[in-house]
Amino acid sequence: xxxxxxxxxALPGAFLHTPAVASRFNAQQDPVRxxxxxxTPASSASQPPRFAPQPGMGLDAPTTNAADQxxxxxxxxxxxxxxxxxxxxxxxxxxxxxxxxxDDNYPELDNYCRQSSSEYDLTRADSAWAPFQKGPTYPIPxxxxxxxxxxxxxxxxxxxxxxxxxWVTMDNCLYLWDYTHPNPELxxxxxxxxxxxxxxxxxxxxxxFNPIITHILVVATTSEIFLLGVxxxxxxxxxxxxxxxxxxxxxxxxxxxAHVIVGSADGRIFFSGxxxxxxxxxxxxxxxxxxxxxxxxxxxxxxxxxxVTTPKEMLWGKTAGEQIVDLVIDDSRNLLYALSxxxxxxxxHIEAPKKLTKCIEKTxxxxxxxxxxxxxxxxxxxxxxxxIVSISPISAAEDTKVHLMALTNTGCRLFMNATSAxxxxxxxxxxxxxxxxxxxxxxxPPPGQQRRHRSDPFGGLVEPxxxxxxxxxxxxxxxxxxxxxxxxxxxxxxxxxxxxLFVSAxxxxxxxxxxxxxxxxxxxxxxxxxxxxxxxxxxxxxxPFAASNHPTGFGNELAVQFDLPGGSEFAILTNTGVHTIRxxxxxxxxxxxxxxxxxxxxxxxxxxxxxxxYGRVETITAALxxxxxxxxxxxMGRGAIDQPTQDRAKQVFINYGGNPTLxxxxxxxxTIEMVRPSSxxxxxxxxxxxxxxxxxxxxxxxxxxxxxxxxxxxxxxxxGKLRTVQESIESLRSFLEANRAFIQGLSGAxxxxxxxxxxxxxxxQGEHQAMHAVELxxxxxxxxxxxxxxxxxxxxxxxxxxxxxxxxxxxxELTYERLFSETSGKDLAKLLVKAIVNRNIENGSNVExxxxxxxxxxxxxxxPDDVVIFKAQEQLKKASEPSLNPNTSRTLLHESLKLFQRVxxxxxxxxLQIAVEQYVGLRYYAGAIQLCLVVAHERDRGNSALxxxxxxKPPNDPRENAFNERRACxxxxxxxxxxxxxxxxxxxxxxxxxxxxLMSTKRAEAYEVxxxxxxxxxxxxLYEWYIQQGWTDRLLSINSQYVxxxxxxxxxxxxxxxxxxxxxxTMRHQYFDAAxxxxxxxxxxxxxxxxxxxxxLSKAKTNASVMTPGVSRxxxxxxxxxxxELLEVAHIQDDLLERLKADPRIPEERQPxxxxxLDGKIQALSExxxxxxxxxxxxxxxxxxxxxxxxxxxxxxxxxxxxxxxQTHDEIxxxxxxxxxxxxxxxxxxxxxxxxxxxxxVTQIEDICHRASNDSFIFPVPTLLPxxxxxxxxxxxDGRIGADANWPVAAFLSLxxxxxxxxxxxxxxxxxxxxxxxxxxxxxVAQWIAFAVAQWVRDLxxxxxxxxxxxxxxxxxxxELVAECDAWVTANLNLIARGGNEGGxxxxxxxxxxxxxxxxxxxxxxxxxxxxxxxxxY
Length: 1418
Known about the structure:
Layout: H1 66-76, H2 88-104, H3 109-112, E1 120-123, E2 132-139, H4 142-149, E3 155-160, E4 165-170, E5 173-178, E6 187-189, E7 196-202, E8 215-221, E9 224-234, E10 240-252, E11 260-263, E12 269-272, E13 279-284, E14 295-299, H5 311-316, E15 324-330, E16 335-340, E17 345-351, E18 355-362, H6 364-374, E19 388-393, E20 402-408, E21 413-419, H7 423-426, E22 436-443, E23 454-455, E24 461-462, E25 475-481, E26 485-491, E27 499-506, H8 508-513, E28 524-530, E29 535-540, H9 557-560, E30 569-574, E31 577-583, H10 586-596, H11 599-614, H12 616-628, H13 643-655, H14 679-692, E32 701-705, E33 711-715, H15 719-738, H16 749-752, H17 758-791, H18 796-801, H19 805-813, H20 816-821, H21 823-842, H22 847-857, H23 864-879, H24 886-902, H25 909-921, H26 925-939, H27 944-950, H28 959-985, E34 991-992, E35 995-996, H29 998-1012, H30 1016-1029, H31 1032-1036, H32 1041-1051, H33 1055-1067, H34 1071-1082, H35 1090-1104, H36 1113-1142, H37 1151-1158, H38 1165-1176, H39 1179-1188, H40 1194-1226, H41 1237-1251, H42 1261-1274, H43 1287-1294, H44 1299-1312, H45 1322-1343, ...
Parallel strand pairs: 1-28
Antiparallel strand pairs: 2-31, 3-4, 4-5, 5-6, 7-8, 8-9, 9-10, 11-12, 12-13, 13-14, 15-16, 16-17, 17-18, 19-20, 20-21, 21-22, 23-24, 25-26, 26-27, 27-28, 29-30, 30-31, 32-33, 34-35
């Protein structure tokens, strides 16, 4: 065996088309990096890089290799998980469907009837292999013979086989009798005045006669033809009774005698005479009309006057002396065939309403011409002296091509097909007339002696066609019945007074077994039956054979051999009596063979013969049927199955059934689903499928209306048929149970001990599962049939009407397959069982008796739990009776609740809902809630719903189904509570004489059940429902641990729940827990605005500041600290948002992005600083961020202060410029002037100092005060604009900076003499020192000294500083006067102030020698 070349493995690193990952270190393409303001594009940004890869080139170029693309598509497809194994019932149903499909694929006649053949398996009549056997012979009654002997002119005999009646005419009299009756009663018609020439039983026209008329008897005499009505009934004994009724319908023939009569299925009657080949139609109607009588005659062959040559005669010609000898009708194609004495076959197309058109005429010469073309050799059986003696139609249901079988007097059967030009365009259709008829196949008589077989090139043997055999010469008459039963009456020279009957039939088993061969062969088996008399008529006693209603599968006798236990039966009327012939089934043949064979070797030889002809499965199926159905062989006593035969059949089933196989897996792991069960399992499945095939796909009921318009529901399948199948399946189950230890696949662990390998063990396991599945299905079928028979013992129409519309629809569409094997069908059956029980409860029947009977018949549809449910429903119905007193009713309600709780796991949602509705109707609210809780618990005993909730409710989780089932029960509780509140709200007085009313008590009982439940899932669902209803106050008033768990669980998922949890804690004075929830909510990812987060943090800070019992001070301080820090960050973020929203520099398209980023979750300080505050130049906020982040880089902080001062001055200057421009343009109408720059700066400094909590790192007085002073001096923010020149010092002092620190900082500036505080600029520092010291002295004087009673004192350095300033000012008055202190105090005023301060300071200076204190903020 050649294997395809193994593809080479891909080398590591050879995946050339894998795209490279973009570098995450490339700042130019970093998707994480954001920019607040649009960068100015560089000139080179629009030019591509010099060495950038071009599209469509290099390793990143897309490939056009189709194979590579297909491989990528294949790799992209998701790997489908293996299909889960089918449930046992579904698996068994698939076995049945597969077996039925194989039976339905039996080939149609055209597939094997294509070439000449003489293949027969001809046996003796007494052989065990004989396909036909002779049944009882019923002699002609003596009274009939007595009348027969008195006949004077003519006599005729015939059969109405479908009615089990025979008839005889004696001159002008007609007599009928039941030939199966030992002493039949003659039914006579003696009113005719003329000799009878023909009698035919036909179907009546619809709507013409009374419905009791089932058939019409057409009687032709020498002068007229008349109709008799036949009413056939089936007697209690099983026989047929016939009554004749006059119809007053007759027609004078006027020179034409009717000798051959035939009727169509729709009631049309055709006949022909004895002197010509014309075909007439007898038409009749119920009443006479204006231009037509009740009866009439139409000559369809020559409708015009006889003297005129018609176009048809000109076309077809007219043969003198030609008569019609046989007329047959194919109702499926609306064709009538006529056989004449010249072996001419004419085909007529029957058209409504009274038209008959000849479409084909085939003479004997035409037949011989077709035969010559079909055969390569000459046969002495088909020559010019050959003539056709009989024709038999083949219906369209049997085959779409073959139309007719013609029998020659030499015993050859000619199979003809008829076609038309339109059939190739429109397909075969019965509504179109054929135009030509051709020879399809010739079936020659069987060989007179055995011939040697020759081999064909494909192996096997080919039977040579024998075209010389004269074994069927001379065939006098032959009849073919579907699906190919052929009965030929042969006149032998050695038997001049009697006929030899040759009977044959297709060997369906061999044909089916060879369906897969290249050239299918027309196998037949046949035998001779001696009737020792001359045949007068033949008829089919049993129903016409049809294994299906379409050609494929139509002729499969094996498929219906168990539906027709007696087989097809034929009746032959001779001059000695009525002989019956029975077609033997394969199972009958098998039973006869194994009964007649001797010894084990003989049995083995016969079994091998069966297997080679019919296959192993068919052989084992026959053995199984014989083994488990003893004595079942219909009415034929010859083939009755005895015990030894049954034992041999059991032996064959057990020993010849084969073993399961496991095909090669090509390296894959073997699984049970891969096992091919044995032929034994196949036989069991095939046998079971054939038992149920007649109704497997059928619907159970057929709703209709009676004559009065009332609903009627009938069974589609006869109940008797169902019981027969049930008995057969029960016999099969008993056989399997009795022989379980010996049957492989049923013996369980014993089979595994025989396994020699792992593969064999898996195969045995698969066999066991397959057999077990079929056993389960058999149980389901027997119980299903019991259910159906029980159902139709009730008033099905009432049960049907009691169902919901959806259930009615399901009931109408319910098939037996669904009932037996599908969960939906079984659920519907359970619903119907409950409807049956409920109907009996309503009628007052004992529910226990009814339920127990149902449980015995169909346990799977009515379990013990169902019985308890029915009892509970009965108790509930009794409790609703109005005549009971309240105590008795409440006792019955309690009893029903106990019963329901016992079977809570078996209660369906519909049962639960009905019970709850009844409880609510009786105001038993607490019981209804309790029942719902118990059912919810039983549906999820493992509490998987709670674990699903705890895991965050992951999607596509199987535990979700358990939650949904429980939630369905909780939904009923919600309805109960709503109904309870509604009823209570209608009460005017909830208290009666100071005591709660009855409804108040019931409400308290119901809510006691609710609050006392330990079902955590129920509490969660109930609280969620409270929130949906808007009953938050009710929820917050509940004191339960489940409320806390519910709200805590959902607080991290929903803002509403978190807010409710805060309210819940606050109402119970659990402020610490409320603060934690609020702080957590403020940091959550919920869509909460920044202002709402500020509110939450403010509330959290307030709650964290309140002492809570059970919470330590350390925990409170820790939480308070965390909340405070978050609050500061949130304030900064809120300020940033408001600033950016109002900043004109921000493009409009960036505003939504900024709002989305800042008006939500609290960002990190680094994000706020780097992405927003620093980029936007919000230096005041940068300083606050430094404080919150505990940033201590003095250089950065100082630079930020310098930027802030300059920015503030520039902003105010711009405002003044705009204001002045507007004032010049508008004059006095201008609005309020903007503030001075120093005023805005003071405000900024005060705000930052307060928000930074006087942080010395963020508010560095030693560097900030000189910076502010320098700004004031350089930018003229002093007396030059009308401002107080001392405002920098005053601002710092107003912020609580100590006088000591301010004076020391000013002293350092005075001494340093840096720009601008040098030269005349030192006068401004001296002025600030004088102001600061004066304020210091004033404060000391105001407070009256230090604490402890000590007098207020200043250190000597203060006096020294003031003296130094005074000396410098005095020495530089001229310098100051020349503009050194512009905008400040006048030199003289400055000198006086310094001296005054100096005097005040000297009074407060302490002793020299005391060192200076440390420099601090205060």
